[in-house]
Amino acid sequence: MLKIAWSPKYAHPLPFGHRFPMEKYDLLPEQLLYEGTITRENLFEPEALEAKWILNTHHTGYVDKLTSLNLSKSEIRKTGFPLSQSLVDREIHIMHGSVQACLFALEYGIAMNIAGGTHHAFSNRGEGFCLLNDIAISANYLIQNGLASKILAVDLDVHQGNGTAEIFQDVSAVFTFSMHGASNYPLQKEKSDLDVGLPDKVGDEFYISTLKSHLAPLLDQVEPDFIIYQCGVDVLATDKLGRLGLSINGCKERDRIVLNAAFRHEIPIMCCMGGGYSEKIGHIVEAHANTYRLAQEIFF
After folding, report:
1. What are the residue boundaries of the Histone deacetylase domain, all occurrences included (predicted)?
2. CATH number, domain at 266?
3. What total number of domains does the chain contain?
4. Which of 260, 243, 240, 249 is nearest to 289 (CA)?
């Protein structure tokens, strides 16, 4: 059964009208339920992740300042969010959603978090709409509990997974692969184990051929026993922050390649949603929904 983390907390932590499109976190499960791709049984509501698993990845000083709402104005500005207790609570629930989804993936082959993909959070700070890094926290949870020994983080959001790269820069058990817009945020890139920077405006054909040429050799090289997939849909041509040129079908084919690879190699995979900033919310929801449709098609 496809298990999916979702909580009412995901969509309602910010003042109305904030530019970050929180509404997708309500609209996506509604669409999937309406069309019959999932039922209520597929959804699970995460709790607050135990603090020790956050501190296993993030510096104590940063976590203390974050949870006590004592970040400086500069630190808050870098996150892109107005800091509040509800926002911090949301982030901690997202972390548990991804960790629990990893455990479900070990059982069912795949599981997903409707939020997550917070790859700009560093070990000691937040950036770019990310306060804590669910990719890193989940990977460290699996390793620390002996549930995985080699994890491949596949980050196909349009923005480099700079926080994830920093956290795992000296960790051999996690291989970080980021394929992103070369000239997009962040201006100062970190060094992933493999970075593939794409020029502006690339379309479906170039993107898909580039992904295929890198993913298959990586699976042979890394030999992962778990994959964490950041599948942001800000690669779309319609995305306000993306600068790439993928169609919705091209984005779907991207997901098909990754999910098929995990299925064929019998590697458990946890998918977290990442970014999406198209002017029309329907484009965001449709592109994200395709990932869930493919999960059902391929794995179940």
Report:
1. 18-288
2. 3.40.800.20
3. 1
4. 249
SS3 175: strand
Place of tokens 């779907």: 252
Domain of residue 163 covers 3-299
Q: For position 146, what pLDDT does the model report?
A: 98
Kindly indicate the confidence band of residue 13, based on its pLDDT and cuts at 50, 70 and 90: low
Q: How confident is the model at residue 233 (pLDDT cuts 50, 70, 90)?
A: very high
Count Cβ atoms within 10 A of the Cβ of residue 138 and give its class: 0-12 exposed, 13-18 middle, 19 or more buried: buried
| Model pLDDT, residue 22 | 79
Q: What residues contact 205, with CB distance under 8 A and at least 6 apart?
A: none
Q: What is the pLDDT of residues 34-66, one digit of tens each?
A: 999 999 999 999 999 999 999 999 999 999 999
Integer Cα distance of 172 and 270 in angstroms: 20
Strand residue runs (E) in the chain: 3-5, 43-44, 110-113, 151-155, 174-181, 194-198, 226-230, 269-272
The proportion of the chain whose per-residue pLDDT surpasses 70, expressed as a percent, equals 97
Q: How far apart are CA 5 and CA 111, in angstroms?
A: 8
pLDDT tens across 131-182, in order?
A: 999 999 999 999 999 999 999 999 999 999 999 999 999 999 999 999 999 9
CA distance 259 to 269: 8
DSSP state of 137: H
0.70 exceeded by pTM: yes
Q: Report the b/e string of 31-60 with b at 16+ CB within 10 A.
A: bbeeeebbeeebbbebeebeeebbeebbee
Beta bridge partners of 144: none
- Over range 197-210, report the average pLDDT: 97
